[in-house]
Automatic annotation (TrEMBL):
Residues 96-288 form the ABC transmembrane type-1 domain. GO terms for biological process: transmembrane transport. This is Binding-protein-dependent transport systems inner membrane component. Coiled coil: none annotated. One of its GO terms (cellular component) is plasma membrane. SUPFAM superfamilies: MetI-like (SSF161098). It is found in: Cell membrane. Belongs to the binding-protein-dependent transport system permease family. It comes from Cellulomonas fimi (strain ATCC 484 / DSM 20113 / JCM 1341 / CCUG 24087 / LMG 16345 / NBRC 15513 / NCIMB 8980 / NCTC 7547 / NRS-133). The chain crosses the membrane at residues 33-54, 100-121, 133-153, 165-187, 208-233, 267-288. It is a multi-pass membrane protein.
Length: 303
């Protein structure tokens, strides 16, 4: 017995209805397959340079230039041995330690100074607060190359060139407006009733900041720490400008030393060091990625 079903276009039988449902499911599957194929193709294009770098770290230098293959013809670990030995009389661990000092110093300086500045902008009413905040945000529009010459002159006259001070002092003085802005927006989303309740109990700004704001700001602080660590670790221009002593060189500067247009370039060791330099950043990100997502997701633009 054939059942008749009514549709907007007229009555159809049970067999026709089942066939239409099957066609609809087939179209959905094809759309899903097409979407995933496009996404996988995009991911492949994005990840290809990283995979090629990892593959090239196991190739002899002569096989790297002009060879886009991802599979080494003759895999070797000699590149990593050369990278760990260092270059120019400076060991790999010296470069690594210098980068780690700058990265951790940047994280500590930014989380301390920017959180205090953000609390002042978000929670304390003082004359000219909005004007100072707008001026601080305006510094984000100022290109780095505009201020680098006067900054270098100042540090040179203070005899601080060839030290880590020029690369870290701004971090401890809340000179990174992006992180101040991020923390201000986070604090503005926290209810002011918390501050008022603490003041009723006799707490001042220091107690409110340390006991109430800092614990609640963990997502924003971790987000800032991740960005600060990665940006400092990957910074090339700053160390290139201020650090002249090879014993103070960082990982990005060490990578550049392996390429010399006047003599032989060791691309194999450079790829190996690039892989080793990427490991701390990946570990740092993987450990704190859930806080990064939470911190970015909770940032508003109100206020």
């Amino acid at each position: 017995m054939t059942t008749i079903a009514a549709t907007p276009s007229g009555p159809v039988s049970t067999e026709q209805s089942a066939r239409l449902r099957q066609q609809h499911r087939t179209r959905d599957r094809l759309k899903g397959l097409g979407f995933h194929a496009i996404v996988l193709a995009i991911v492949g294009v994005i990840l290809y340079p990283a995979v090629w770098m990892l593959s090239s770290s196991f190739k002899p230098s002569s096989d790297i230039v002009g060879n886009v293959s991802l599979i080494p013809d003759a895999a070797t670990f000699a590149n990593f041995a050369k990278a760990l030995d260092g270059i120019g009389g400076v060991s790999f661990w010296t470069f690594f330690t210098n980068s780690l000092i700058l990265a951790i110093g940047s994280v500590v300086g930014i989380t301390l100074s920017c959180s205090v500045s953000a609390y002042a902008f978000a929670r304390i009413d003082f004359p000219g607060r909005n004007a100072f905040f707008a001026l601080m945000i305006g510094t984000l529009l100022l290109p780095f190359h505009v201020v680098i010459i006067p900054q270098y002159i100042v540090f040179s006259r203070l005899e601080l060139v060839d030290t880590f001070v020029p690369l870290l002092v701004g971090k401890f003085l809340a000179a990174e407006a992006f992180f101040v802005f991020l923390m201000v927006q986070f604090m503005r989303n926290l209810p002011r009733e918390l501050d008022e309740a603490a003041r009723i109990d006799g707490a001042g700004h220091v107690r409110i900041f340390t006991s109430i704001m800092l614990p609640l700001m963990k997502p924003a602080l971790v987000t800032s720490s991740i960005f600060a660590f990665i940006w400092s670790w990957n910074d090339f221009f700053g160390p290139l400008l201020y650090l002249k002593d090879p014993d103070l060189a960082t990982m990005p500067l060490a990578l550049r030393l392996y390429v010399d247009q006047t003599t032989t370039s060791d691309y194999g060791a450079q790829m190996a060091m690039a892989v080793l330099a990427l490991v701390p950043v990946l570990l740092f990100f993987l450990v704190f990625q859930r806080y990064l997502v939470e911190g970015v997701a909770t940032q508003g633009l109100k206020g």
